[in-house]
Amino acid sequence: MRLEKLHALFLEHPIICTDTRKIVENCLFFALKGPNFNGNNFAKDALEKGAAYAIIDEKQEEAADNCLLVEDVLETLQKLSIFHRNYSSAKIISLTGSNGKTTTKELINEVLSKKYNTIATKGNLNNHIGVPLTLLSIKNDTEIAIVEMGANHKKEIAFLSNIAQPDFGYITNFGKAHLEGFGGVEGVIKGKSELYDYLISNEKYVFLNADDDIQRDKLGHYVKKFGFSKERPDYYNITFIEANPFVVIEVEDERIETQLIGKYNFSNCCAAILMGKYFNVAMDDIKSAIGSYQPQNNRSQIIDKNGFNIILDAYNANPSSMTVALENLQLMDAQEKTLILGDMFELGSDAEKEHQTIADLAKNLGFTNVLLIGENFCRANTSFKKFKSFDDLKEMLIKNPIKKCTLLIKGSRGMALERVLDFL
C-alpha cells in the first residue's frame, strides 16, 4: 500500500492501537510482532472489537477487506510517522540523556503549554515504537511536540533522530546508564551525542547545560545554540538557591520554589526555563509551571505514610542517579534516615564494581540503616544487611518493622521496590 494512501486513512482514523486489549473504536490496528507474540494473529479480533483497519504483514486465512497487507508492519509504522511529521507544521523538540529525560520532558511541556498547543511523549514511550507513536499523536493544531528518545546502545539515537527529525534538541546529561549496551561511559557519550550529530549536520538549534563540560566542548563553536549556566556570563544565568529538600531557583530576580527534591533536578528545571525563555513564554507563566509541577510514577515522589517521610524513586536506577540520590539524602535535615536500595540493571561486566561503589558510598556518607536488595548488591563486600530477593526483604519487614524515619527507596524498574510501601 502506498504511504500517501495509508496516511489519508490515518487522517480519517487518527488513533493508533497496537494491543487488542486496548482497542479504540475506529482506530488503526498495527499488528506488531515481539519475542512472545505475533500481532497478525490478533487482526481479526481487533476488527471485531471496532478497529477500522488492521495493518498486517502476514496473510490471514480469514482476512477481510479492511486488513491491509504490508511488507513489514513496524517499518510501515515508522515510515507513516515520518510522513506525518513532515505533513505537520509542528516544531519538534527532541531530548535524550542518561538521567532525567522524562522529568525534563514533562517540565518542558508544562512551561510551553502555557502559550502553545503542545503534545509530549506519554510515559516513557521513547523507543523505536514509542517515538513513532508520539509523532502520530500530533494533531492539526499542535504547535510544538516534545519527543523523548531513549537508547541502550549506539546508533539508536541516530535512528530515532532520523525518524523525529527534530528542529531543536537537548541532552540532559551523560551518565553510567546502559553500560552493557553502550560498552562503557565513552560509548554512552558517543551514543547520546548522536542527537547533536543530527542537529549540527542539519543546522538545527541546540539547547545545552553550559556547566556540563562535555556538552560545552562537544558543541564548540557551533552557532545555533542557547544554553543556561549558574555562573558563565555568556549564557543565560539561572541561580541554584537550595534543595532542602525541594529545589529553589532564582532567575531574572524571580524566586521559583519547586516541588522537586534533589539538586539533580536543578538542571531539569533549568532546561524547561531556558526553552520557555527561547519561545517567549512570560516569566510569570514559567514560574507557575515550574512551581506547580509534581513528579509522579515513582520518580522522586515525596510520600507521607504512617509517620514515614518517603522518597520513592523506584522507577529506574543507574550508578549516576543512585549517587546523586544518596548525596541528596545526606544533605537533607532528618534525624533518622533509612535506605532501601535495589539492584541496578544493564551494567554488564561493570555490575559488581558499580554496586560495590554504591555500597561504599553509602558507608562513606555516614548512613548506617541501609538495606540492599538483589543478587548484585548481595555480592558487595559490606556490613549492611543484604537480601537476595524482594521476598526476603518482605519477610524481614514484617517481622522487624522499620522505625519511622526519612526513607529513600531506589532501584531499577525490574526490582519494583514501590512494593515496600505495602509493608511499612
TrEMBL record:
UniProt GO MF annotations: ATP binding; UDP-N-acetylmuramoyl-tripeptide-D-alanyl-D-alanine ligase activity; UDP-N-acetylmuramoylalanyl-D-glutamyl-2,6-diaminopimelate-D-alanyl-D-alanine ligase activity
Family: Belongs to the MurCDEF family. MurF subfamily.
Organism of origin: Flagellimonas aquimarina
Domain of life: Bacteria
Domain spans labelled Mur ligase C-terminal: 299-380
GO terms under cellular component: cytoplasm
Biological or metabolic pathway of the protein: Cell wall biogenesis; peptidoglycan biosynthesis
Reactions catalysed, as given in the entry: D-alanyl-D-alanine + UDP-N-acetyl-alpha-D-muramoyl-L-alanyl-gamma-D-glutamyl-meso-2,6-diaminopimelate + ATP = UDP-N-acetyl-alpha-D-muramoyl-L-alanyl-gamma-D-glutamyl-meso-2,6-diaminopimeloyl-D-alanyl-D-alanine + ADP + phosphate + H(+)
Amino-acid positions noted as binding ATP in the UniProt annotation, renumbered to this chain: G97, S98, N99, G100, K101, T102, T103
Name of one Pfam family that matches: Mur_ligase_C
Domain Mur ligase central residues, every copy: 96-275
GO biological processes: cell division; cell wall organization; peptidoglycan biosynthetic process; regulation of cell shape
Known function: Involved in cell wall formation. Catalyzes the final step in the synthesis of UDP-N-acetylmuramoyl-pentapeptide, the precursor of murein.
First-tier enzyme category under EC: ligase
Domain called Mur ligase N-terminal catalytic: residue spans: 16-79
Name of this chain's protein: UDP-N-acetylmuramoyl-tripeptide--D-alanyl-D-alanine ligase
Matching NCBIfam families: murF
This protein's UniProt keywords: ATP-binding, Cell cycle, Cell division, Cell shape, Cell wall biogenesis/degradation, Cytoplasm, Ligase, Nucleotide-binding, Peptidoglycan synthesis
Chief location of this protein within or outside the cell: cytoplasm
Classification via HAMAP family: MurF
EC number(s) from the headed UniProt entry: 6.3.2.10
Compartment(s) of residence: Cytoplasm
